[in-house]
Each structure stands twice: as structure tokens, then as C-alpha cells.
Amino acid sequence: MHPTVAEILELPVVAAGRPVVRAGRSALDTRVRWVHVSELPDPAGTLSGGELVLSIGIPVSDPTTDPADYLRALRVAGGVALMIELGQRLKALPDELVQAARAMSFPLIELRRTVRFIEVTEAVLGRVLTEQHAQLRFSQRVADAFRGLAVDAARPGRVVETAAGLLGYPVVLEDLAHRVLAVAGGDPAQVLRDWTTRSRGAAAAEGWHIVPVGRPTARWGRLVVPTRVDDDRVPMVLVNAADTLTVIARLSPEPDPARTARSHWFADLLALPRGGLPELRARAAALGLDPAGPFTVLACPAGSALPVPFTGDLPDGTVVAIGRAEPVSVAYPVATAEAAAFEDLPAAVTEAMRVLGAVPPGPARVWRSADLGIRGLVHELRDDPRLLAFVEDQLGPILRLDDRRRTDALRSLRAFAEADGVITAFATRIGTSRPSAYARVRRLGQLLGRDLTDPAVKLSLQVALLAADTAGIG
């Protein structure tokens, strides 16, 4: 990156000349490609663009030279600033020259002490070469970093993190609907503030750096540095990052990058990262979820589909979604929980997952926590030693049988419990006559040493069977 006019003024060899900026202070951040000594009144053809012109003032001391025309000629030829040394030809800069430079916002600097122009040229050349060498080293570092990510088929978030780390600026990956797929660098809550609106309408006005992602005929996203910075490294890093994302997407395509981003969001919601809820709120809005409640959280088994846009997958495969209402009809068990406000979402997602874990096999329906009854309590206590001891106490004689007899006895006892002790229903469930059913109940009672007609005993056995199933016993 070439030095600016302001940076050249800070070089010791220039500072020794006691430089004073007489005009164009607002343009001192203009970059200087080279330093050129010129005493020509018309420098056309001698400059190639980006030069700081050094002079002892011969052109402006000529009474036939119009200061405004001279400065315009400098600018047209490619000059970005004029530095005049006082003493040999001029004791002071002509007022007409100063006024013309101010009118054009063209940097005009006077040197009040003599300097050797060759030393200024050498100093600037050294600075330029140092910058170029640093840029070459940085380019190699960038190439190595993204080559490694491409070989590893890194996830998009890691590519974005690398880009932000190299630049020191926030970097955002969004899809063509302006939904944020990944963000790194800075405070996410601040970076993603009103993201969709700003990205759609204000990106150019705010001076954002934007590079498309995907093949030219199949663009699928954009990499954005959402801030105005004058840094030659930004486009280089973004282009390398975009190329890496494009290659990875072709070699290891994700079926839905937006869903992947939502899945990461759900995982972070449950983990509550350091950024906390403000960051999650900003990311949710940038992913298309209105953060204003109330919400209905849905959870269903892995591989299921939910007709809700804001859907993701947890690491264990559970499908989770945030909507505004329960589904009217479902093709599989769906657990739900309500969240009145965004702050309630972590608890609601946790509750929906808990409910789903306790849902029994059976027809497709929507389950709430209250629908689980005793099943929900048993599921929560499934690893509690006291519950496991209760199972052993109630079902021990059966559990100690050999595999064939244990399986047959448990099947009969479950059928009896599901029939609520009604012999006719029990006989139907096991496919036998009522006398045979009575006989089987007597044998079960003798095996357990319990009166199976006692309501308290039946209740205890029902709970024990439920606990055994939940804990995977038997």
C-alpha cells in the first residue's frame, strides 16, 4: 500500500524542511505512488499518475504563469500534491497560488528549510519498496491461509473468521436474500444492526466492500466488509475468501447454506456464547427471524421436515424451528413450547427438546409438556438411582429370567397394564381366551409376588414398566 501525502510529511527528511500545509488539508490522505521533481509550467506527459511534485518554485515565480492553470495542469497530468521549497526562488508562496489550491482542495505544502530533493525521493522510494515487500508477504500469507482452508473443505464460518482475522475488520457472508450465513470480527450485535435493510439499500452509500461468491453463472452469496476503509488488502482478501468458498461449495456442497447458518445459531442459542442474547438477536434478525415475540418453538425427530422458514438442525440431528403458531397437521411427532419474548427462547428450545425426548412411539401428533403427564416426570428421572432401584424392586423377578421368558413376561405385563387390568381387553391384546388370560395374570402375580388386581399394585407396575422402557431396561 502506497504512503499518503500525510505520511510523507512525517518522514524525517521531509520533517526537517519544516513543512507547512497551505491548502488541501482534506486531501492529505491521498496515496502517493511516486515523487517527481519538476519545474515545468505544463507537466503534461511527464507524470504518470499519483505523483507528489517537488519544486523550488520556478513555474509559480514566472509572472506569465497563471497559478490556477498551473495547478489544473498538475492535477490533469496526475499530480496529487505540490511541495515547494522556499528560499532559492521564492521567499513566500504567492497568494494567488494558495487561493487557487484552496479552491481546488489540492494539497499545497511549503518547505521553510532547504532539503535535498534526492533524499526525499530516496526516502519515499524506500517507504514504497517496504510497503510493497510487506504487501507481497501479506499476499503469500493470504494465499497460504485460504489454500489450506480449501484443502480442508472448511465450513463457511471458518473462512469468514480467517478473512476477518487477516484484515482486522468485520466480515460478513450473506446469501442473495441478504440473510447472514456467517459473521466474524467486531461486535456482531453492532455489525448486524438492521442488516437486511442496510445491505439492500445503504451498502454503496456507506462505502462497503463487496465481493460476489459462487461461479459467475451461479452466484449464491456475497462477502462484505461493512465499513468504509481505504485499504488495498480488503479486496485481495475478499476475492481469495470468495474463491475459497466457491471451490469448497463445488467440492463439498451444502444443500442449504442458510439452514446450516440457522443450525449454528440454534447451537449457540443453547450454549449461550459470550456475546449473549444481544448478539443472538442480531444474528437471528440477519437470518430472517423477526426478534419480536411471541414465538412457538417446534422440535421433531431427525430427518423430519417442518413447514417453518426458520428451521435448523441440532448436533444430534433433532430438527428445531421457530414460528408463530403450532402446525395444523403433522406427519410425525412434534414437540412444542411457547416463548413470550426473545429472552425466553433458550428455555423454550430446551423444553421442546425435553418433550420430544419423552414422546412415546405412536401416531403423529403435537405434544406439549403438559401432555406428557407421568411420562415426562419419568423421562426427567430416567437416570436417577432411586428410580432405577424402584424398577428393580417392582420388576426384579421378571428381569432375572432368561431372555425368552423375560421377553414373554414383560410383553404380557405391558399388555395387562395397557388394558388397565381389564381381562377382556387383556385377552384381546395377547390374542387368547379369557380363561387363558386369567391364568396368565395369576402366573404373573405369583412370579412377582403381588396381587395384580390391587389398584396400587397396578399403578406401581405401570410406572415401573414406563421407567424401564425410558431407561432401556429389559
CATH architecture of the largest domain: 3-Layer(aba) Sandwich
Helix content: 40-55%
Low-confidence stretches: none
User: Order of strands across the biggest sheet?
Assistant: 1-5-4-3-2
What is the CA-based Rg, rounded?
A: 38 Å
CATH superfamily of the largest domain: HprK N-terminal domain-like
CATH class of the largest domain: Alpha Beta
Number of domain units:
4
Number-wise, the strands total 14
Distance between the termini: 72 Å
Strand content: 15-25%
- Structural class call reads alpha/beta
What does the average pLDDT come to?
88
Q: What's the SSE blueprint?
A:
Elements: H1 5-9, H2 12-15, E1 19-23, E2 34-37, E3 51-55, H3 58-61, H4 67-77, E4 79-85, H5 95-104, E5 108-111, H6 117-152, H7 156-167, E6 171-175, E7 180-184, H8 188-191, H9 195-201, E8 209-215, E9 218-225, H10 233-251, H11 257-271, H12 276-286, E10 295-300, E11 311-313, E12 319-323, E13 334-339, H13 345-358, E14 366-367, H14 369-372, H15 374-380, H16 385-399, H17 403-418, H18 423-430, H19 434-448, H20 455-471
Parallel strand pairs: 2-3, 3-4, 4-5, 13-14
Antiparallel strand pairs: 1-5, 6-7, 6-9, 8-9, 10-12, 10-13, 11-12
Which terms summarize this structure?
474 residues, alpha/beta, Udp-n-acetylmuramoylalanyl-d-glutamate--2,6- Diaminopimelate Ligase, Chain: A, domain 1, Beta-Lactamase, 4 domains, five-stranded mixed beta sheet, 20 helices, 14 strands, 15% strand, PucR_dom, CdaR-like_regulators
Short recap of the structure:
The protein is α/β, with parallel strands linked by helices and about 475 residues long. The chain has helices at about 5-10, 10-15, 60, 65-75, 95-105, 115-150, 155-165, 190, 195-200, 235-250, 255-270, 275-285, 345-360, 370, 375-380, 385-400, 405-420, 425-430, 435-450, 455-470, and strands at about 20-25, 35, 50-55, 80-85, 110, 170-175, 180-185, 210-215, 220-225, 295-300, 310-315, 320-325, 335-340, 365.
